[in-house]
Amino acid sequence: MIIRGANLEPTETEFTNLSGWDWTNDEEKNRLIKYIEDTYYSLESQVGEVNEIPHDGNDHVLIVPGMLNHRCSPEFENLESISAHGVLASEWFGVLESELEGRFCVFISRMKDDNYPYKGDLAEDNRSRLNIGRNVLLFFDDQNPVMKKLLHLDYFEYENIKKTDPSKLSEIYTSDEIELFDKLIEPLSPAGAMMRSDYDSKFNYWSAIVGGIPSSLVNGVCIKNNNFSDEENKKLSDLFPNATIFNSNLEIVCERKNTIDKPHKI
Questions:
Q1: Helix H segments across 138-201?
Q2: Three-class SS of residue 91?
Q3: Which of 142, 137, 120 is CA-nearest to residue 52?
Q4: How far is CA 264 from CA 50, 71, 73, 168, 202, in A?
Q5: How many Å apart are CA 78 and CA 76, to the nearest integer?
Q6: Kind and range of the H or E element at 72?
Q7: In a structure prediction context, what are the per-residue pLDDT tens digits for the chain, which is 266 residues long?
Q8: What does residue 231 show for φ and ψ, rounded to 5 degrees?
Q9: Please, what's the b/e burial string for 35-60 (b: 16 or more CB within 10 A of its CB; e: otherwise)?
Q10: Model pTM score
Q11: What residues does 138 pair with on adjacent strands?
């Protein structure tokens, strides 16, 4: 298969467990890599019920500040892989993250509020994020307990706490988590250590989640301006049955397949 990413040229590869790749001869690092793998699979099995993306009850979804999302390629081969395995760090496909910002991590962003100082960076403007480019946006259920546990494993936030109030690390993280960040993620990801140094930076809206995010947590897919056919939209709904499919105007083009008793309306 071919994988694609923001800083990754199309690469022919295959999915394999993290521990299945020949990363290092260091037994301690291999143990930590296996720890990421085991943690991901354990959390994946615990997802349970997923909340519906907020909507107005009138055929439109509602995008509110803080909503978690991940930008990805609209190629169906890529979306099929995400459906099967999750939104995963490139290392699951044998490719080291190239920018040294969060190796063995997957990157997500948050929608902004009206006070965000854009500084001319239109790529981080909410409207532009929903419109510009051919990619699609995957939204996640941030109220799900598993998603909350994954947000706890945010490398950028770990480094921020380590820099601003290191005495709290042992209160917030387990010894295994501290070891994971200090002995594996941090040495391989020096460019991510200061990602939250500027309080009004766009980087404060980013997270680097260790391992990945199960596809069952996807509760919304924004197809943006991609001219998908009705058949393709239905296929998207089949791939992400907990997700509402919608376009750049926030119009629902395909309701979620997995229904719950009480729709999440605001």
A1: 145-152, 155-164, 169-172, 175-180, 186-188
A2: helix
A3: 142
A4: 11, 23, 27, 35, 28
A5: 5
A6: strand 68-72
A7: 676 666 666 778 899 999 999 999 999 999 999 999 999 999 999 999 999 999 998 899 999 999 999 999 999 999 999 999 999 999 999 999 999 999 999 999 999 876 766 555 545 677 778 888 889 999 999 999 999 999 999 999 999 999 999 999 999 999 999 999 999 999 999 999 988 876 556 667 899 999 999 999 999 999 998 989 999 999 999 999 999 999 999 999 999 998 754 444 43
A8: -65, -40
A9: bbbebbeebbeebeebbbbbbeeeee
A10: 0.91
A11: 70, 221
Q: Which amino acid is at 9?
A: E
Other C-beta atoms within 10 Å of 111: how many?
19
- Paired residues of 205 in beta bridges: none
The secondary structure element, H or E, covering residue 23 is none
- The sign one gets for the Cα dihedral 92, 32, 27, 41 is negative
Give yes or no for a contact between 41 and 119, defined as CB atoms under 8 angstroms apart.
no
CA distances (Å), 23 to each of 7, 106, 121, 240, 264, in order? 20, 18, 36, 32, 43
The whole-angstrom separation of Cα 100 and Cα 35 is: 20
Q: Which amino acid is at 30?
A: N
CA distance 247 to 57: 16
Residue 59 — left, alpha, or beta (φ > 0 → left; ψ -120 to 50 → alpha)?
Answer: left
Distances 185 to 89, 104, 156, 194 between C-alpha atoms, Å: 12, 7, 10, 14
Amino acid present at 210: V
Residue 219: exposure state from Cβ atoms within 10 A (0-12, 13-18, ≥19): buried
SS3 content of the chain, % helix, strand, coil (to 5): 40, 20, 40
